[in-house]
Amino acid sequence: ELGQIRQEKAQVVAKRKQAERGHREALAARDLAVAPLTSGTLEAAIRALQDLQADIRTPDAHKLELDQVQKERDDLLQRAQQLEAALRDKSREVDDMTSEYEQRLGVVRSAVGSADPRRMLINSSASSPRQAKRLRG
Asked: Coiled-coil stretches, from where to where (predicted)?
């Protein structure tokens, strides 16, 4: 009976060793199968994190671009206002020069008109603009 118990014990130990070997082989097979998945999953997770970081940085980048565009717009608006002011100043200068020219021309015409005897003759003898033109020409 002791031999039979030893024999059963040896069979149990052998079965246990066989089960452990099978278990180790199953774990090794699982690790081999999971390794590419883990690598691919890890790469996918890294890409997802990089995309997320890019998305997180994007609002800041957009804000910087927006700030730059707004600064350029403000600078251009200020330049346009400066040009409008300069144009108003030049227009006033032209208006002043035109007014001064017209005043001087009026003075010259008055002086020439009162001193020119032909003009007096034309004004007094011409009854129509056509006759006045003919007399002047």
From this structure: 66-100
The contacts of residue 125 (CB under 8 Å, 6+ apart) are 131, 135
CB 113 within 8 A of CB 119: yes
Average of pLDDT values for 27-42? 73
Q: Which residues are CB-neighbours of 122 under 8 A, at least 6 positions away?
A: 132, 135, 136
Model confidence, pTM = 0.39
Are 82 and 92 in contact, with CB atoms under 8 Å apart? no
Alpha helices in the chain (DSSP H): 2-115, 117-125, 129-136
Q: Where are the domains of the chain?
A: 2-136
Please answer whether residues 18 and 26 qualify as being in contact, where contact means their C-beta atoms are separated by less than 8 angstroms. no
Read off the tokens for 60: 């800041």
Number of C-beta neighbours around residue 19 at 10 A: 10
d(CA 82, CA 75): 11
Measured CA to CA, the distance from residue 21 to residue 17 in angstroms comes to 6
